[in-house]
Amino acid sequence: MTEFQLHAAAASDDVAAIGQLLSNGAEIDTRDKDGRSALLVATHGNKVNAAKALIEAGADVNLKDNINDSPYLYAGARGHIEILKLTLQHGADLKSTNRYGGTAIIPASERGHVDTVRTLIEAGTDVDHVNNLGWTALLEAIILGDGGQRHVDIVKLLVDAGADVNLADKDGVTPLSHARSSGYDAMVGLLEKAGAK
């Protein structure tokens, strides 16, 4: 059961054990019952050293589990910035989507992970990707955010990156309408300045 020892080593951030197991022939991308690779286990716990060791040894940063999370997508969604940057340096698929049909920038925007959103924009992520709910990163930052400074910063980042400020949800409600109805004045100002209607 060498494979699951690798998962355990990843969960406990034990780089020495990871190296030993891999040199003894452990399969780096073996999945557990939930479809998770050791790298995804490390990412879940934000175990940066284990993740780095696994990625540098060739672990697949895009390998999805049973609920369509990959190390790249999960690091982006949770704001695990160091692991996210490692996945981006090792072939992260910017177009890959989670179980909601969203790219990493959408949950990052919803959860207020400013540095993550900035990193994903710099990596070339499509800021106007629409998920299965009919929402973009901009819409999620407004609708599911709390209107606080982190979400205002994210709206500004997205607008500055060229996000379509008039791309409405599937009910035809625009980002500006959502921001107004929530009373998010700072967001309203940013959107209006960018030509939102």
TrEMBL record:
Top-level taxon: Bacteria
InterPro entries reported for this sequence: Ankyrin_rpt, Ankyrin_rpt-contain_sf
Record keyword Glycoprotein present: no
Classification via Pfam families: Ank_2, Ank_4
Residues of the signal peptide: none
Alphabetic keyword roster: ANK repeat, Repeat
ANK repeats by residue range: 6-33, 34-66, 67-99, 100-132, 133-170
Keyword hit for Repeat: yes
Protein name (Swiss-Prot/TrEMBL): Ankyrin repeat domain-containing protein
